[in-house]
Amino acid sequence: MSGMRQHPFGYRLTEVPASDVDPVLVEIVEGYLASVEMEVETAIARTSRSPMIRDAHDFRAGIHDRHLRKLTGRSYSALVHPIARDFPPETMRPGDVFFHNDVYESEGGIGHLPDLCVTVPVFAADAAGEPSVVAFVQAFGHHDDIGGAVPGSMPSNATSVFAEGLMVPPIRLWDAGVPNAAALRIMTRNSRMPESLAADLDAECSACLMGARRLGELFDRYGVDTVEATFDAILDNTTATYRREILSKIPVGQYVWEDYAEHDGVEEPRLHTQRITLTRTAADDPDGERLVIDFTGTGPQARGPINHCGDYAEGTFLKKWLAPILRNLADSPQRMAELDVNEGVVPLIEMRFPEPGTLLTPIFPAPTNARTFVILRLLGVLAGVVAKAVDGQMPADQETIRYTGVYGDDLEGNPYLMREVLGGGSGGRPHGDGEDTIHVVPDSRNLPTEFTESRFPFRVESLGLAVDSGGAGLHRGGLGYDKQIRMLRDGHFMSIADRSILACWGVRGGQAGQPFSVTVDVGGPNEREVDALADAEPVQAGELIRIRTTGGGGWGDPLERAAADVVRDVRWGKVSIAGAARDYGVVLTGSADDPELDAAGTQAMRQQRRQARPAEAPFFDRGPGYARLSGGATSAEVDWVEPAEPSDG
Question: Taking the mean position of all CA atoms in its chain, how far away is CA 186?
Answer without folding.
Answer: 30
